[in-house]
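Researcher: Next sequence.
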Amino acid sequence: MSEENAAKEWVLDAETEYRFELDAGTSIAITLMRGRAEIFGAELVEGKPYLFGSECKAAVFTWVGCQPPTEYVSDETPMSAYGNLHIALEQMRVKALANLHGSPVPESVHLAQSKPQAEISAESPRVLILGPENSGKTSICKILVNYAVRAGQGWAPILANVDPNEGGWACPGALSAAAVHGFIPTCSPANPLGSAATSAPTTLSSNAILPLVHWYGHAETKRNFLLMDRLIRNLGVNVQEKFDQDPEGSAAGVIVDTPSSFGSSSGTGVNDLRQKLIRACIDAFKINIILVVGHEKLNVEMQRAYGSMLTVLKIPKSGGVVELDHSYRERVHKYQMHAYMYGETIPSPIGIRGGTQGGETLTDFTLAPSANVISFSDLTIYRIGAETMAPSSALPVGAARVVSEIQPVLVDPLQPGSGLLNAVLAVLAPYHPDENERYDEELLDLNVVGFIVITNLDIPHKKMTVLSPTQGSLVGKTAIVGSFEWQD
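Model: Next structure:
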């Protein structure tokens, strides 16, 4: 919709895309009138209005031509390259499944394949996507996952997000992974990968997604390298366990989205840590393909380091990628936290009826969090490492650290400077019931079951007010605090 709320019509030729960027506080509705079109691989239904808000930036692409009414159209798009990449990954999936069953590869794959049969790997695709800031890595992940789902083979590839600045299906500061059975929608950066069962109303089909979440607690990977390394490996172990339990499902493979810090270096020490985290991803997820998005130097670096071990490919960056500044990312963090607690309903522009969010009918997207007053003793809170800790490489020569970077430190709300007011906390799953199976730093390996925010501290009465998306009891629970804060 324009500022005058007048509808506009755009006719897209084959293999072109309509790109749009929304300002804060605005929304638009896009309806496919005829033809076929998609948004990051998720098909649009003809005649259904799709709502977009919260400063969403996206593109409507068509392979065959279409007419979407709604501020520019581009015929320079890398979608052909992404489509060919999907075909190659699909061949790997089919061959991996056939190899698992001990059956021949279907004739359809022989006809579609672009390389000799012997050259197609019998492994399922395990893809690591690398690129600098503002290169469109997450959009490419969504395209590849959505194309796999659309293939009609019943694939449910796992999408792992190890970018704590984005949060995936959880909150900013989290690392997450989930098997994706349906389209990943795009309607708002408040839910970059769509809604999940941990926060979505039960009326949504996307509520079937059950992500596995670990809490890092910071936006920058360099804040605590050792913790980041451990959580990546934990997530990889969780994914492998799922594959071991479902060998057929493992044929769909895994796609790993990474932070921009993996794709750029700023100093020898930082570069060494970046390389170690990339290696952690390769080892943890058993990566066999590295995709480098539009960065020649990074591509050469990966070719030299891993070209003899696995496939390294450079893929083009879309010309529609938007440069995102720090203030925008901070606003997105607020959108994500608000959506986690309250849900998100995008207002329909004037004159639009029957609008949908990511294809879901607007029934009840509003959540009702509860504010509970609990005693300080009800909830055990830890911080990983000291609150402000320089990396080990920055310590004086010969100096030893008193507190390990991954050592859980108990936080006392009574102490001045506890940093708990307005802090986002990750509530963890219970410890192992058998005390003989417990170990030091066990809580680092526990999954996250939900997030809360401390909105008030009553020091004299040793009480705190906690905002939670559910009304479940927090008595006896354990939580970890990071550096993220949020005020409603």
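Model: The longest helix spans residues 79-101. Helices lie at 79-101, 107-112, 137-150, 225-245, 268-285, 296-306, 326-342.
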